[in-house]
Write a structure and sequence with these properties.
- The structure is a single chain.
- The chain is an alpha/beta fold.
- The protein has two domains: 118 residues, 3-Layer(aba) Sandwich (Rossmann fold); 64 residues, Winged helix-like DNA-binding domain superfamily/Winged helix DNA-binding domain (Arc Repressor Mutant, subunit A).
- It contains nine helices and five strands; from the N terminus they run E-H-E-H-E-H-E-H-E-H-H-H-H-H.
- A five-stranded parallel beta sheet has the order 2-1-3-4-5, sandwiched between helices.
- Helix 1 links the parallel strand 1 and strand 2.
- It is elongated, with a radius of gyration of 18 Å.
- The protein starts with a strand and ends in a 5-residue tail after the last helix.
Amino acid sequence: MTLIDIVLVDKSPLVLAGLSKIFEDDQRFSIIATAADGERFMEAVERLSFDVAVIGWEMPFMSGRDVLNELKGRENAPKIIVHTGSSKPGVARQVLQLGGAGFCSKQESPQVLVDTVFSVSEGRMVFPFMSMDAAPTDGLDSLTPRERDLLGSLAGGQTNAQIANGHGISLNTVKFHLKNLYEKLGVNNRAQAVARFLAGNDGY
């Protein structure tokens, strides 16, 4: 029997340990690596070859959305399943639109996740029922906590350098987050992003 090589990613050490135990106990799978955030997962993608990854949606440094964007068009990219407890509407739809292979809520039993990984490894896509006619959101609910902080800094008139200093990150990291932020909001520049932020500011 050919083992299914997988990588597991979750920001919670407890959840990650639980997932590891579940898949270690199933002889169909081989855990190649685990990671606590999106950046470390992308490092694993560069170094290792594996079939399927189970990742979170709201992760430090690089969110699930960031990871899927980064993997777009990449040759021999692993199949991605997003496993999340996020209650934000439309997450499953975003995963599908960004090229993810599957979605599983943390409210489901562990066996549902195992079955999802196995199905995806065989070339199937696994998603809950969703109406594709549903009205799109304004994009604000798809932002990570870091991106919401950066957007607030933009609205406060800070420059990229000031944002970098204030958040303890590099200028390149600021530019990376802002690029993703603009894409999520469907805007082209900081003025449009700030206008979107102000329009939806009641939710922050």
